[in-house]
Amino acid sequence: MEVIFLLIAISLVLAGSFLFLFFKAMKDGQFDDNYTPSVRILFENNSKKSTKNQPTKPKSYE
Question: Are the beta carbons of 31 and 25 closer than 8 angstroms?
Fold first, then answer.
């Protein structure tokens, strides 16, 4: 029975340390993306639905 208490204590310490390291990385800016906004203008924007130059499907597929 003491082994279960020992394993629970070790798992709580390990989970707490991972949580601490995650928040530390968040605070230090580890997950900030500074590169993508600067190159976003280089990529094609396909959000507009234009009907020009789009292949048409045959009527049998509709």
Answer: yes
